C-alpha cells in the first residue's frame, strides 16, 4: 500500500511540477552530449600540361573564368583545390557535431587553409516540429541537386564537375539562411524542401552593391535574395536503389569582376537555375557496388553587364541575356573495402549569349573527360590517382587550350565523423 502511494505521489509530481524528485533527475544534462570531433586533411600533388601563371587566366567562354589556379575578386584571394603544379595542402576541415537538447542538434564545419580560416557550415537542426518536418538554420550547403550538399572529401573525384564549377563556383550554393523540409508518410522516400537564403554565390547569385556606395555601378538590395525549392524521391528494387530529384533556385545576381586584370566587368540582374539529378546504386555484395550518378543544370541570367576600365569607370553597359546548360555523368565501381575506380564525362550543352539582343557566337565542344582509381587503407584514409582531359578552356586570345591534368590526392581523417547521406 505504501509503495502504491509513493508511486502515485511521484507521478503527480512529474505531471504537476511538484518539487519531489531531485533537480538532476528532472532537468536536461547537456554534459552527456559531448561533441563528436573530427579533423580531415586533404593534400594533393598536381601535374598540369599548362603553367600556373597561364592556367589562372583560362576561361569557359561566355560562362565563367578563374576556375583554376589562384585569382582575386576584390579584396579576396581565392585558391581553388589543387590550385598549383606540385604539392598542394588544400585544407584541414574541423568538424564539431552534437545534440544540444531534446529539440536541437548543432553542427560546425570549419575550413583551415594557407589563405585563412572560414566557417564552411554552422547550423542547428530540429526534428521536434513533428509531422515529418525538419528545420535547419545558420550557414549550410543547400540541398539543391545531389552533389551540392556534399563536402569535398565525399566527392568521387578530386574536382567538382564542370557545370557545377561554372554555374556555382567551387563552394556551390553555400549560404546563410533557413531550410524547411517535409518527408511524406509514403511507403517510399519522398521529400520536399524550401530554403530562404541570403544569396552570395560567386558565379550566379548576389545582392550586394557593386562599386562605390555613393556612386554605385549597380545598386544592391538588403536582406534575403535567393529562394530554393526541390523535391526528391527514392525507391529500392531488390539490390538496386534509385534516387532522383528536381530543383529550382531563383534570386538576384550581382557578379563583380571589376578587379580583374584583363577585361574588368560587372553584372547586375536576375538569375534562375534549374536542376535534375538521378542516381542508381546496385549493390553487388556487402562491399562491392556500381553507382551511376548524373545531373543536369540549366541557368538563365538576365540583366546588364558593365564593361569597366582600369579605374572602375563604366565604358559601356549593354543588356545581357544568357541561357546555358550542362551536365555530368559518372560511373563508379567499388571492388571491395580497399579499391574503387570510376570515370566521368562533363559538358556544357548550351551556351547562348545575347549582347543588346544580338547573339554572340560561342565555341562548342566544351567538354572534359576524367578517370580515377583509389585505394583505401581504411575508412579513414584514401589515396586517389586521377587523370583528366579538359577541352572547355580558352586563353585570353580566344584559342582553345587542351589541358591534361594528373592529380594524386590524399584524404585522411581522425576522430568521430557522422555518416554521410546517400
What topology emerges from the helices and strands here?
Blueprint: H1 2-16, H2 23-26, E1 36-48, H3 52-55, E2 59-60, E3 64-65, E4 70-73, E5 76-79, E6 86-101, E7 104-113, E8 116-126, E9 133-141, H4 162-168, E10 174-183, E11 189-197, E12 210-211, E13 216-218, E14 226-237, E15 240-257, E16 265-283, E17 289-308, E18 314-316, E19 319-334, E20 339-355, E21 358-360, E22 367-378, E23 381-390, E24 403-415
Describe the protein's architecture and organization.
This protein folds into two domains: about 1-30, no CATH class; about 35-415, Beta Barrel (Porin), CATH 2.40.160. About 5% of the residues lie in helices and about 55% in strands. The longest helix is centred in the N-terminal third of the chain and has 15 residues, at about 1-15. The chain has about 425 residues and is mainly β. The protein has a 16-stranded antiparallel beta barrel with strand order 1-6-7-8-9-10-11-14-15-16-17-19-20-22-23-24. β10 and β11 form a beta hairpin. It has helices at about 1-15, 25, 50-55, 160-170; strands at about 35-50, 60, 65, 70-75, 75-80, 85-100, 105-115, 115-125, 135-140, 175-185, 190-195, 210, 215-220, 225-235, 240-255, 265-285, 290-310, 315, 320-335, 340-355, 360, 365-380, 380-390, 405-415. The chain contains four helices and 24 strands.
Amino acid at each position: 500500500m505504501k509503495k502504491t502511494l509513493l508511486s502515485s505521489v511521484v507521478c503527480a509530481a512529474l505531471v504537476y511540477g511538484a518539487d519531489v524528485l531531485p533537480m538532476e533527475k528532472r532537468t536536461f544534462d547537456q554534459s552527456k552530449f559531448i561533441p563528436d570531433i573530427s579533423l580531415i586533411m586533404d593534400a594533393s600533388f598536381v601535374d598540369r600540361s599548362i603553367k600556373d601563371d597561364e592556367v589562372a587566366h583560362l576561361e569557359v567562354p561566355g560562362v565563367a573564368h578563374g576556375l583554376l589556379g589562384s585569382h582575386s575578386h576584390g579584396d579576396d584571394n581565392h585558391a581553388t583545390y589543387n590550385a598549383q603544379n606540385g604539392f598542394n595542402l588544400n585544407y584541414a576541415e574541423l568538424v564539431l557535431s552534437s545534440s544540444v537538447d531534446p529539440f536541437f542538434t548543432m553542427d560546425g564545419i570549419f575550413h583551415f587553409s594557407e589563405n585563412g580560416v572560414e566557417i564552411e557550415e554552422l547550423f542547428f537542426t530540429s526534428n521536434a516540429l513533428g509531422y515529418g518536418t525538419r528545420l535547419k538554420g545558420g550557414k549550410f550547403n543547400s540541398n539543391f541537386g545531389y552533389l551540392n550538399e556534399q563536402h569535398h572529401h565525399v566527392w568521387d573525384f578530386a574536382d567538382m564537375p564542370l557545370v557545377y564549377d561554372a554555374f556555382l563556383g567551387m563552394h556551390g550554393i553555400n549560404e546563410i539562411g533557413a531550410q524547411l523540409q517535409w518527408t511524406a508518410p509514403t511507403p517510399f522516400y519522398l521529400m520536399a524542401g524550401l530554403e530562404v537564403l541570403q544569396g552570395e554565390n560567386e558565379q550566379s547569385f548576389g545582392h550586394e552593391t557593386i562599386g562605390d556606395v555613393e556612386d554605385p555601378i549597380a545598386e544592391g538590395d538588403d536582406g534575403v535574395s535567393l529562394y530554393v525549392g526541390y523535391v526528391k524521391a527514392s525507391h529500392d528494387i531488390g539490390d538496386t536503389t534509385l534516387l532522383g530529384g528536381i530543383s529550382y533556385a531563383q534570386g538576384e545576381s550581382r557578379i563583380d569582376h571589376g578587379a580583374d586584370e584583363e577585361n574588368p566587368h560587372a553584372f547586375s540582374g536576375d538569375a534562375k537555375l534549374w536542376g535534375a539529378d538521378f542516381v542508381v546504386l546496385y549493390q553487388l555484395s556487402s562491399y562491392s557496388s556500381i553507382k551511376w550518378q548524373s545531373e543536369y543544370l540549366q541557368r538563365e541570367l538576365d540583366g546588364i553587364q558593365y564593361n569597366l576600365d582600369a579605374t572602375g569607370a563604366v565604358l559601356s553597359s549593354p543588356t545581357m541575356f544568357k541561357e546555358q546548360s550542362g551536365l555530368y555523368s559518372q560511373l563508379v565501381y567499388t571492388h571491395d573495402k580497399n579499391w574503387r575506380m570510376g570515370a566521368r564525362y562533363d559538358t556544357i550543352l548550351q551556351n547562348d549569349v545575347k549582347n543588346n539582343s544580338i547573339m554572340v557566337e560561342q565555341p562548342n565542344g566544351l567538354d572534359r573527360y576524367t578517370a580515377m582509381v583509389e585505394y583505401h587503407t581504411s575508412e579513414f584514409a584514401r589515396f586517389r590517382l586521377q587523370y583528366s582531359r579538359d577541352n572547355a578552356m580558352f586563353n585570353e586570345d580566344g584559342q582553345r587550350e587542351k589541358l591534361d591534368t594528373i592529380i594524386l590526392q590524399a584524404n585522411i581523417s581522425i576522430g568521430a565523423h557522422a555518416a554521410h547521406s546517400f
